[in-house]
C-alpha cells in the first residue's frame, strides 16, 4: 500500500498499539495504506469508520510475525508514559502504578529509572511490582517462588523503591495465567484508595499480554471485551506505541462475594472433572510453562439472541449481476454509553520503555524469535575443566581460565539457542568460522551479517565456590540468557565472559536459581554435557489427585 501525504491524520487510535491512524507517512506509527484508509473512512461514519481498525504494523505482527522498523526514538516512549502519569488525578485519588518486570531480566534495567520517570509531582496512590514469566523457570528446589519474590523485592529496594509507595510484590505468568486470580483480588482491594491504574515496564516485559488477560477477567467491566479490542502481542520490542485502556469494574461487596464463591468452587475441582476442551487447553499450557493457572470470569454479560434481517433483494440477482458487489450492511461495533463510563476508572497499557545496552536491539526479527524464550526453559549443564570455553550461540562466551578442579556451568536460555563447548586454543577460530552460520545460529546471515554485528568484548570475573550443589553466581549475557556457575567449596575460579560490544554483562549474586545444576540427567559419555531433564508442571487452583 502507498501513503497519501494530502490526507490529515484521523484522530482515531489503532486498537492494537494505540498509535493515531494515518496514511500520510509509511515510516511513522499508525500507518494504514491509503487505499485501505479511504475505504474505511469514506462511509457514512467518516473517520469513525476506522474504529476497531489496526495499523499495518500491528496487522503484520499479528498475522505474519513481521515487524516494521518505525522512526520512533526511545525517548518518545518515555515522553508518552511520563505525560500520562502527570495527568490531573481523577476521583480525587492518584493512580495505582502496576510495574511489570521480566524475572529473567533481574536486576531489571528500567526499574532504577522509575523514580525519575514519576518525579515529585506525580501523587501516586501506590506501586505494585509484578514479576512476570515465572512459568519459564524450573523449580530448582522447594520454596523457589518465595526466593524469587525476595529477589524482586531486593531489586526494588536497590532501585530506591521502598516504604510507602511500594504496596506489594507479586509473581505471575501473564501467558499461562499463573498467579493472576490473586493479582486481580489484590487490585480490587486497592479500589478505595486509588484512581486509574497504569501498566508500566520495559519492552517485552509482557504488559500487553497481561492487559489482554485482565480484559477478560473479573477486573474488567463485563461488557468491555465486546467493545474493546485486544492489544497486539509480539516478541518484537516496543509493540505498544501509545495508551490502550479498558474500564475497571467496581468491586462491590456482592461482586466480591460471588467471585470468592466461584474461586472456592473451582478449587474443589480435579483435572479429571474438567471438560475435554478445558483439559486440552490445560495440557497446551503445561507444554508452554512450568506454572499454570486458570483465569475465569464471574460476571458474564448475557448476550441477546441475534436478529436475522430478511432482505429479499439480497437473495435474488439476475445473471448479469455480480453478487460480490452486492451492498452489505456495516457491522455495528459495540460502544460504551456515556453513562457507563463517565465515572469509570481505567486500566491503561503504556508503551514499553526501551532497554538500553540490550542485545535484542542488535537483532533482526527472526533472531529475536530465537533468542526470547516462549516456553518452559530446559536447563543445560556442562562440566568444564580449566582451558575450556562455552559459547551461547554467537551472542555470549564464557572461558574457564584458572581453577584447580572442574566446575559446572548451567545454561538458562531459550531452548532454540545452541550451546557449543570448545577449548581456549580453538575458540577464536570457531567463532570466526561459525558466527553467522548454522552451528552458532544467531546472528544469522553469514559473513555479511557479521560485518555489521559488534565484536564480542571480554570482562574478567573472579568467583569462589560454595559447594557442588549450589551455584555461586549467574553470568548474565545481556538478554540472551545466563550461565549459573557451580564450584567446589572455597575453590577460586578465574573466568572471562564476552558479550557484543555495547551490551550489558552482569554478574548476578546471589544467583536466581542457585540449585539449577541439580536439574540434570546422567553424564553423556565422552562429552562435557549432561542429559537434560524437564521437571513436571504445577497447576494452580486445581485440587491434586495424588499426581503432579
UniProtKB/TrEMBL annotation:
Single GO molecular function: GTP binding
Keyword Coiled coil (UniProt): yes
Species this protein is from: Eudyptes sclateri
Name of the protein in its database record: Nitric oxide-associated protein 1
CDD domains per record: YqeH
Gene: NOA1
Ranges in coiled-coil conformation: 253-280
UniProt keyword annotations, A-Z: Coiled coil
Entry-linked PANTHER family: NITRIC OXIDE-ASSOCIATED PROTEIN 1 (PTHR46406)
All copies of domain NOA1/YqeH-like C-terminal, residue ranges: 409-509
Signal peptide per UniProt: none
All residue ranges annotated as the G domain in the record: 197-247
InterPro entries per record: GTP-bd (IPR006073), Mito_transl_resp_regulator (IPR052807), NOA1/YqeH-like_C (IPR048422), P-loop_NTPase (IPR027417)
